[in-house]
Design goal:
With 71 residues, the protein is of the alpha+beta class. The protein has three helices and three strands, in the order E-H-H-E-E-H. The protein has a three-stranded antiparallel beta sheet with strand order 1-3-2. Strand 2 and strand 3 form a beta hairpin. Helix 1 crosses helix 2. The longest helix is centred in the middle third of the chain and has 10 residues.
């Protein structure tokens, strides 16, 4: 079983260079999974990684691959 490290709302906000209010909004909306331990929210590294993966920019599915012009 893997042991996660946990980050505070402040640590996540500092890492992403955003406000703590934004992180709390993500938690309230269910976008970012967190646990409330009484002294504040904690976000597991695995949940933070999943959040970042879900919000990553992806190539458009209809974007054609660049043509090979080396011929």
């Amino acid at each position: 079983m893997t042991r996660d490290q946990y980050q505070t709302v402040r640590e996540v906000a500092e890492r992403l260079k955003i406000s703590e209010a934004t992180v709390r909004l993500w938690i309230r909306s269910g976008e970012l999974r967190a646990i409330d331990i009484g002294k504040g929210w904690r976000i597991a590294d695995s949940d933070f990684d999943a959040f970042l993966n879900n919000h990553a920019t992806r190539a458009r599915p209809d974007a054609a691959a660049p043509e090979d012009r080396s011929a």
